[in-house]
Amino acid sequence: MKTMPFKKAGRIALERGRLQVEIDDLGRFAFDEMTLVDEAGERHGYVMESSSGRAVNFHMAGRLYTVVRAQFLRLVAGDIGKAAVFEVA
User: Fold this and answer.
1) How far apart are CA 17 and CA 76, in angstroms?
2) Of 21, 39, 37, nearest to 84 (Cα)?
3) How far apart are CA 68 and CA 64, in angstroms?
4) For 10-60, what is each residue's pLDDT tens digit?
5) Domain residues of the chain, as ranges?
6) What does pTM read for this prediction?
7) Which of these, 33, 36, 70, 80, is most buried using a 10 Å CB contact count?
8) Residue 12: which H helix or E strand, with range?
């Protein structure tokens, strides 16, 4: 099985009651159902569970980003304040 290299690319946090992902070289985006939108409401990508079920993936700007599903769920539950987002190379 081939492993994929991961590079830290940003963070995800619950801010003012809204789940937001910030990618270092792209900006900040909010979740709107299964899409990612900017402050003007323009769509920039989509969100889906990984095929293994162990991560939540973000597809944006022709790139794949991921966050560990367990951390994502702890974030949504309010148990942690933020989680790292990684780019999958």
Assistant:
1) 10
2) 21
3) 13
4) 999 998 888 999 999 999 999 998 999 998 999 999 999 999 999 999 999
5) 6-88
6) 0.88
7) 36
8) strand 6-15
